[in-house]
Amino acid sequence: MRKTAYQHVVACNVCQINSYKNELPAGRLIPIVTSYPNEIVILDLLGPYPASRIKRYRYILVITDHFSKWLEVIPLKKASAKIIVDTLFENYISRYGAPVKMISDNGPQFISEIFE
């Protein structure tokens, strides 16, 4: 009986339209506006992936300039906050200067004290 009722509710358009939604409503989206390159940089960390054959990289740090959409993709062996900060200085800030603001997805590496 329960299975029959479930199948009926799933197949019924009126039931689907009027069913209770247990999802939160979407938040208001606010666009990020930039005026010049290197004003806002977005950071993301991908991985872990299987280690590469020669240098054993497992993570990828992606740095995106929000104004120009320029990408820097840097392979990493480990994903600690210290390694990410050192990599940012060596591979990005030393070439382009320090960005005004950095945005991340608040992963554990990006909310560490060393990152602030």
Oligomer: single chain
Q: How many whole angstroms does the radius of gyration measure?
A: 22 Å
3D shape: elongated
Trace the largest sheet across and list its strands: 3-2-1-4
> Strand portion, in percent?
15-25%
- Can you count the beta strands? 4
- End-to-end C-alpha gap: 58 Å
How much helix, percentage-wise, in residues?
25-40%
GO biological process, one term: DNA integration
GO molecular function: nucleic acid binding
Protein name: Retrovirus-related Pol polyprotein from transposon 17.6
Domain Integrase catalytic: 33-116
Summarize the structure.
With 116 residues, the chain is an alpha+beta fold. The chain is built from three helices and four strands; from the N terminus they run H-H-E-E-E-H-E. The chain is elongated, with a radius of gyration of 22 Å.
Can you tell me about this structure?
With 116 residues, the chain is an alpha+beta fold. Helices cover 28% and strands 20% of the residues. It has helices spanning 2-11, 13-18, 81-96, and strands spanning 40-46, 59-65, 71-76, 101-103. A 4-stranded mixed beta sheet has the order 3-2-1-4, with helices on one face. Strand 2 and strand 3 form a beta hairpin. The N and C termini lie far apart (58 Å). The mean pLDDT is 89.
